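User: I'm new to structure prediction. If I give you an amino acid sequence, what do you actually give back? Let's try with this one:
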Amino acid sequence: MKNLVVFVFLATVLLALNMAEAQSAKPISTKNTPTKPTPTKPTPTKPSTPTKPSTPTKPSTATKPTPSTKPTLPTKPTPSKPTSAKPVAANVAMAKSVSGEPVPAKTTKRQSLKTTKTKPTPTRKTTKRTSRPSTSPAA
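Assistant: Good question. You get back a string of structure tokens that encode the predicted 3D arrangement of the chain. For your 139 residues, that looks like this:
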């Protein structure tokens, strides 16, 4: 946030300086002839600095929220077919929940798969360890 504020401030200052230089190619010469340029330059420079940075910053912020993107997202989920499938799944899940038996059965299957994967791993390691020591004494 601080970096953003500093960046905006520096950008504002640079824009103000560029505008001042564009109006008069010699900003130092202003000191030499303060009678005519002084009243003209301070008036446009000061209002230009706060007005221009504030205006681009606010419209940029208004543009960045991307209101068009938000409507696009609701447009994509508009298909009611996938939505219909979800409520059906919810109804089925509720029916299974009422029974109570199918839900634990699925959990058991998952656990059995995990257990099956876990058991072969130690068995294989044990087998390798067993074969290694038997090979070492033989050598």
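You can read the tokens as a compact description of the fold. Here is one thing that stands out. The first helix runs from residue 2 to 23.
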